[in-house]
Amino acid sequence: MNYGDDFQRLSRYDREKLQGRNLDWENKPPLYKSYPPGLERIELGKPQFKDNRNLFDIIQQRRSIRRFMTEELEPQIFSGIIWATQGITLATEHHQFRASPSAGALYPIETYCVINRVKGLKPGVYHYQVPYHSLVLIKEGDYGKELARAALGQRMIDEAAFNLVWSAMIERSKWKYDQRAYRYIYLDAGHIAQNTALAAVSYNLGSCQIGAFFDGEVDRVIGVDGESEFSLYITAIGNPR
Ligand SMILES: Cc1cc2nc3c(=O)[nH]c(=O)nc-3n(C[C@H](O)[C@H](O)[C@H](O)COP(=O)(O)O)c2cc1C
Description:
Blueprint: H1 3-10, E1 41-43, H2 55-61, H3 75-86, E2 88-91, E3 96-98, E4 109-115, E5 124-129, E6 134-140, H4 144-150, H5 156-159, E7 162-169, H6 170-177, H7 181-202, E8 206-210, H8 215-222, E9 229-238
Antiparallel strand pairs: 1-6, 2-3, 4-5, 4-7, 5-6, 7-9, 8-9
Helix pairs in contact: 2-7, 3-7, 6-7
Bound molecules: flavin mononucleotide.
The site of flavin mononucleotide has 9 residues, from strand 8.
């Protein structure tokens, strides 16, 4: 069973086979995930941008960092990193474009924050509400250890000031791209993670991208079902040790 080989072959576009599809506009999945009222919502505030660093220096300096100091992170810096993932950078009449590109501007990737130590935010699992640049508190508590355990015991996750977990709501992309959507979600997630890594360097922070984890266990931490929405990628972020 070579699922990966089959996936690559079956999701190819071939000129001879490609047919146009009619999009079902009436059943277009919503672009934004919402949570029931009653959960605590936290405005992230204006990000603090640093403008004294050259992009090319930042690219040069990015390295995967796996050991972190235990100090708390400033909220404006946290806000800036979250904004760099998927914050809205251009609003037009029909679209809200984001910091990271996305196939068809369908934005199937959701951002969750597993917070260990950010000033003013209780440790817990939060969802990033893109249109409001705010967070919803899904569950309060020390989930760093559980996430680290889910990621094959990688301790940097527990040491980090916070972790970002990205999931895909696959129907959002399948609505247009069908099986090819499975290629695009990984590409989308890669763009988001790279923005995150570069934003971290611009604040003199370190980050590490993490792809090794037990999927179902990470799904449980962020509270998703693993089918309509499933975990893709994690980034740990903090002050380098
Ligand atoms: C898709 C992906 C998955 C990764 N998963 C892990 C991981 O689970 N644990 C880890 O320590 N590093 C992980 N890394 C980081 C790589 O080990 C790292 O990028 C690589 O060694 C190159 O080093 P650099 O990032 O410092 O340039 C991952 C990187 C990528 C792109």
